[in-house]
Amino acid sequence: MKNVKRGRLAVLILLAAASLLWPSRTLAASITLNLTSEPNEIYIGGFLPVLDLLIGARAINSVGWGGGTAEAKAGRLQEGFLAKQLADNTFFPKATATVKPVMDANNQPDPKRAQLVIDGLPKNTSVTFKETISAASRKAHKDAKKPITGERPDSLRTSGKDPIGMIQFSSDAFPSCVVEEGDPPSCTPTEFTGGIISDRGDLVFTLSATDILDLSGAGVTAALYSKLAPSISNFDVQILNYMPGDDFLTFLFDPDKTLLSEVVFGTTAAGGAVSGSLQAAEPVPEPSSLVLVASALLCGGAVLSRSRRRVVTTRHDS
Q: Cβ-count burial of 293 within 10 angstroms (0-12 exposed, 13-18 middle, 19+ buried)?
């Protein structure tokens, strides 16, 4: 018995030493923007969309986005981020913005998808992304019989505990269809996408304008709420304080059950504004391997591991 007690004492001493010599490594709080773009889309007439990135209360406005690949879109935001840091040395001095390609099925960069990873953020820093296209730009393309679309579904993702997210659809009246090139030009019904992704999978809906009676921002939000509300609790997420007439949905990810948090938002409409916002989650420490081994010894040789099973669900489309 004395030998057992001595053994346990030795392990406790080993744990204490490990905590001093090999402290747990804390991940930096970060937000990943998953961006989409149509590579062949070119904006004419000098009217360009505006990409807005808001980090905390600090705005980055990247005016002059002229279309192209998603990686170029992410790069434009990165340029705005770096310019803001150069102009203001109090602008999150430890933060970085990195553009990363997304590989397709052939392990080649997908021109329609890319990521912008903003790292080194203080916990609970809110990041908001919005893309807007002016009425003048829409009219110029319509007169030229050239297609123009809004942002396809983009998303914001963070990993850690206790974030809050939001998606917003701001417009008095979204256009009911997207004008496609041709003579005469065709008109494809506008689509609206919104939802969340958590450790339990994704709950994301894409609705057609033909299924929505009210194409205002509040009407689109109400239609998405009616789809999300019945089952969102199964994903360990709540919709907070929604009221009819709101043009936004606020999501609380359960801090005790979720480590992956993502909001998805987008529309094919070239009008109004669709935005998403997410707080940088509290980082989760990564224990050193020595502490894990010592913990295993303390528990009679059992291997301790912390894992989170992700249940992947089928994306819901309407």
A: middle
Looking at 29-139, which runs of residues are DSSP E strands?
29-36, 50-55, 58-63, 96-103, 109-121, 126-132
State the pLDDT at residue 242: 98
State the burial class of residue 243 (Cβ atoms within 10 Å of its Cβ: 0-12, 13-18, 19+): exposed
pLDDT at residue 182 in the model: 61
CB atoms within 10 A of CB 23: 12
Q: How confident is the model at residue 8 (pLDDT cuts 50, 70, 90)?
A: low
The pTM of the full predicted model, rounded to 2 decimals, is 0.78
Q: Enumerate the β-bridge partners of residue 179.
A: 187
127 token code pair: 């990041």
Tens digits of per-residue pLDDT, 88-133? Answer: 888 998 999 999 999 999 999 999 999 999 999 998 999 999 988 7
Percent of the chain with pLDDT over 90: 48
State how far the alpha carbon of 156 is from the alpha carbons of 163, 190, 264, in Å: 12, 22, 7
Q: Which of the 8 DSSP states describes residue 159?
A: E
The answer to whether the CB of 35 falls within 8 A of the CB of 70 is yes
Cis peptide before 244 (omega within 30 of 0): no
| 67 neighbors 87 (Cβ within 8 angstroms) | no
Measured CA distances, 59 to 50, 80, 81, 83, 266 (Å): 13, 10, 9, 12, 21
80/258 Cα distance (integer angstroms): 32
With a cut of 80, say whether residue 21 has pLDDT above it.
no
Return the C-alpha torsion angle 288, 290, 295, 300, nearest 10. 150
